[in-house]
Amino acid sequence: MRYRSTPRRATGLTFALFASVLAALTVLVGSSSGASERALATVTVDTLPIANGFPLDLGIQKGFFEKRGIEIKKVTLQSGNDIVLALSNNNGDIGYIGWTPAFIANTSGIDIVTAAASEVEGTNIADNWQNLMVKGSSSIRTPQDLAGKTIAVNALKGVGEVVIRGALKAVGVDPNSIKLVVIPFPAMRTALANGQVDAAHMPEPFMSQAMNQDGARIVMAPGPAIMPFLPNGVYVARTSWAKENPALAKQFRLAINESLIYAQGHPDEIRALLPAAIRDIRLPVWSPILDRKKLLKLAQLAKEFGAIQRLPDFTKLVPGNISSGVILKGDVGATTISLKLDKSPVKTLAAGADTVAVSDRSSKQSFHLKGPGVDKKTGMKKSGKITWTVVFRPGTYRFYSDANPKLKGSFKVES
Questions:
Q1: 247 CB contacts (<8 Å, ≥6 apart)?
Q2: Is 14 left (phi over 0), alpha (psi -120 to 50) or beta?
Q3: pTM higher than the cut 0.70
Q4: Partner of 347 at 20 to 30 A CA spacing, among 113, 177, 187, 323?
Q5: Tens of pLDDT along 206-227?
Q6: Alpha helices of 171-288 — where are they, by DSSP H?
Q7: Side-chain half-sphere of 238: how many Cα atoms within 13 Å?
Q8: Are 376 and 369 in contact (CB under 8 A)?
């Protein structure tokens, strides 16, 4: 089976891009020679107080925006819906929000357009960074125990509500039986600890703080319960601003794409932006690649649970210059190795840029991905997680362990 969301990637990408991995990655992160010599243009970015937005901070720190002629002015708000409201009132040029607020804006006549992709949720309760938390002493032990309970979310009709209701439905719990209470992320720990709510939908770093300092427990990972690598965050721009400043909007997209790729490859530098006591948090998979098929599924859930009344106009919300692709899950253990798209082994892919998230669970094995233009591998002396954004060209690709030739697999890439 060939896996690919539609459309494949940015409008205007030609076959020539497939001739070189460097050329294709340039589509994602661009070229910026000479930009730093120009006067800087200020771009106001409304963002959220969560670790998922840190690639923006790291990109500023590394000079990715400055070298493209951009100075970032950050404004922190408490929810994606707050950011959409701010953008609609011209209080900001670009906003970092969840996809559900983006859907709401699009279907409510608020003109925003995707500036860049951002991050996705994890694959299970062990690696997800945004989960439903309960007190350590709570009688709630399973997702089924959440029926009829009060749950804190940072906004109604937002990301939290949609994924919680969608996940509960997926595990056989009436999604309409719960009561949702709006509480800002920074205040959720206190609300949970004092019994104001039965559970809280917390992202990092609040989730790890609740576990390490309050003894809270994870009872459910809503995103992965719906599907692996569920799209979560997105950078959107006011459509009028993007039309009036097309070159600046493009340079922002290239700079944030570079920031996302760099952040994914340098998690220690992301952690360094956090207080020392909470640096060991779970991080998302950041990627400039957008899986449009999963995005449609998320939009359908948003419609089902009343966040929106109709499906978004994706031709307006997500333009062709946002690279489309998939996120693959690589895994290697002491005796097994695999590469999957969702839950199915990868046999055939369409050519183009994709993200590969690898879980190396063995200190004696490695995950080595090799084929036309790609030669990536994890170390054999340590285990952990690593993510690559690569460009697949037509041909055969192999994945194997350098320590054990019996651990191997392959797939074909077609143009």
A1: none
A2: beta
A3: yes
A4: 323
A5: 999 999 999 999 999 999 999 9
A6: 188-193, 206-214, 222-226, 239-244, 246-265, 267-271
A7: 19
A8: yes
Residue 157 tokens read as: 């009709």
Return d(Cα 26, Cα 259) in angstroms, integer: 13
Place of tokens 């997926």: 170
From residue 61, alpha-carbon distances to 204, 269, 299 in Å are 21, 10, 34
DSSP class of residue 324 equals B
Distance CA 52, CA 27 (A): 23
Residue carrying the six token digits 């990655």: 25
Domains, the chain, ordered by start: 31-121+230-317 (3.40.190.10), 130-226 (3.40.190.10), 327-414 (2.60.40.420)
pLDDT tier at 258, thresholds 50, 70, 90: very high
Q: Which two tokens stand for residue 271?
A: 């952690």
Residue 240 reports pLDDT greater than 70: yes
For 322, residues 6+ apart whose C-beta sits below 8 A from its C-beta are: 10, 114, 116, 117, 253, 290
Place of tokens 């020539």: 16
End-to-end CA, the chain: 14
Structure tokens at 123: 């694959």
| Amino acid residing at 132 | L
Q: Which of 248, 262, 213 is nearest to 56 (CA)?
A: 262
Burial class (CB in 10 A: 0-12, 13-18, 19+), 179: exposed
Compute the residue count for the chain. Answer: 415
Query: Which residue type is seen at 209?
Result: Q
Give whole-number Cα distances, 293 to 51, 229, 342, 378, in Å. 26, 12, 12, 29
